[in-house]
Amino acid sequence: MHSDxxxxxxxxRIAEWRxxxxxxxxxxxxxxxxxxxxxxxxxxxxxEAGLDxxxxxxxxxxxxxxxxxxxxxxxxxxxxxxxxxLVTPGADTSEAETSARREGVVAVALAVLxxxxxxxxxxxxxxxxxxxxxxxxxxSFFVLPxxxxxxxxKRGLLGSAxxxxxxxxxxxxxxxxxxxxxxxxxxxxxxxxxxxPIALWxxxxxxxxAGSRWRETAxxxxxxxxxxxxxxxxxxxxxxxxxxxAFSALIFQAIGVDIEPLFESWILPCGAAGAVxxxxxxxxxxKSVIENMAPVLTRLFTPLFAIVLLTFLGTMVWxxxxxxxxREVLIAFDLLLVLVLALLLYSISARDPQSGxxxxxxxxxxxxxxxxxxxxxxxxxxxxRISEFGxxxxxxxxxxxxxxxxxxxxxxxxxxxxxxGKRGTFPEVERWQTGYMPVYALWAALVVVAFPPLFGYL
Length: 458
Known about the structure:
mainly alpha; 80% helix
C-alpha cells in the first residue's frame, strides 16, 4: 500500500473516532478537538517508533482510553474489526501480506537452522549429556547468532559495519568460551556458561534489535519490551510443547513404542532452540496485540512480589534470623532480586511516560525499596561468607552482581520518589534504566574473560 493510501486510511479512522465522540452529547466539540490533537501526537510518536499507521492508531486509541471514557468505549466496540484488519489484511494490502509471508518463511527457516546447529556438535562425537559442559558454555552460539541475523535482516543491517562488529563479538566470545583450560566441573566454567548469554543478549542481540536506535532511550526500551514479551511467548510455546509431547508419549506407548530417546536427543534440544526464533517472530509480528497482555501480568505480579519481599523482611526482623549463607541459598536469593529487577524494567517499559504518577507507581516504589533492603541483607551475608571462607569465583561474582543491583535499585528509588513528588519526570527513570543496561553486559563479559585466569580456571 502506498503512503498516500495509508495516510488516507488513517485519516478515515481518525474521522470515524471523532464522529463517535461527537455523537455523544456529554462531550463538546472543543474537547474533541483537544483529544484529537493528543491522539495525533500519540500516533506520530508510535509511527516514529516503528509501528505502521494501523498499529499506531490502535495503540493510541487504547492509550487514549485511559484518559477518556468514550475513547475506551470506542476502543472496545471497534477492537474486533481493527484486530481482524491487522492480522488478516484485505485485498488492498497485498504488499503487506507478501511481506508478512516472506518474514514468516525466513523466521521458520532460521528456526530450523538453529535447531540443526544445536545438533552439529553431535557430528563430531559430542554427546548432549556426556559433554554437557561443552554445550553449556556454547549454548549461546547455537541460537543468538541466528537471532542476530534475523534482526539484522529486518533492520537492513546486512553488509553493514555494525553487523561486522557484532560478528566479531560472537567470534571473540566463542574464543573465550573454548580456549581456557577449565577444571572439569569447576566454578569458573559454570560462571562462563551463566554470564556469556547475558553479555551477548544485552550487548549484541540488543544492538541488532534496536539497530541505529541502540544508543537512544526509546530503542533500548523497545528491546526491554521485546525481551519481556519474548519470555511470555517462549513460556507459552514451551507449555504447549510439553502438553503435546506428554500426549504423544501416551499414544505411542499404547502401541508399544517408546519415544523418550527421540524426545531427549532431538525434539527437546531442537525444539528449545527453534522456539526462540519462532517466539521472536511472533513478538515482532503481533507486537501491538501482545502489548495488552504483558502490562497486565506486570500489574498483577508487581504487588505480589512487593508483598513477598515485605513479608520476608518483616519476618526476618520479627524473628531476628539472618540469611542462610550457604551458596545455593544466596544464588536463589540473587535470582529473586534479578527477577524483581526484570519485573521493574518491564513495568517501566510498558508504562506511558507522559502519564502522571498513580497508585501503581507507589507500588513500584514499595517494590524497589523492599528489593533494595533485601539486596543489602544479601550483601551482608555474602560479606560474612567471604570473611569466613575467603574469596572464590562464585562469591566474587555474587558480590559484584549484588553491588551492581544495589546501585541500580538505589538510584531508581531516588528518581521514582522524585517523580512521585513531582520534582522529577518519568523519562528520567527510563533514561537511568536504559543507560545502566550496558553495566550488566560489561560485568558479565568481565566474569567470562577475567575470572577463569584470575582464579586458576577452578
